[in-house]
Amino acid sequence: MPNALSAAEADADLLVLRPSKWTLVVIVQLRAGTMRFNELRRNMGGVPQKSLSQTLRELERDGFVTRTAYATIPPRVDYDLTDLGRELLVLAEQFQHFALRNRQAVEEARRLFDATTG
């Protein structure tokens, strides 16, 4: 029998979103509604196919995205936000606003850091 997690470990594990570089981008893209894989990839520009596949699998596993496969030729797979995903979308949009509001400050901090460290 596997070792049971302590309450603190269980809480920490539950709160860990394992976001990839593309997690919030996918969530924000799906704001518009159901999308197919290639449509998402096209809209995201520059995301490698493997990275998008992995991100979608993780989001589906964690309950943020649903995946619906249709037995058609060619195969069709749609992705959509769940209620949990729409709740995460609110946080993603807040982060996006934060990032836009603070872009210059972050760029200046990076410039100063890079100038002093190497």
TrEMBL record:
Pfam family, one: HxlR
Keywords: DNA-binding, Transcription, Transcription regulation
Residue ranges occupied by any HTH hxlR-type domain in the UniProt entry: 8-107
InterPro entries per UniProt: HTH_HxlR, WH-like_DNA-bd_sf, WH_DNA-bd_sf
Keyword Transcription: yes
PROSITE patterns: HTH_HXLR (PS51118)
Record PANTHER family: TRANSCRIPTIONAL REGULATOR, MARR FAMILY, TRANSCRIPTIONAL REGULATORY PROTEIN
Name of the molecule in the record: Helix-turn-helix transcriptional regulator
Organism placement in taxonomy: Bacteria, Pseudomonadati, Pseudomonadota, Alphaproteobacteria, Hyphomicrobiales
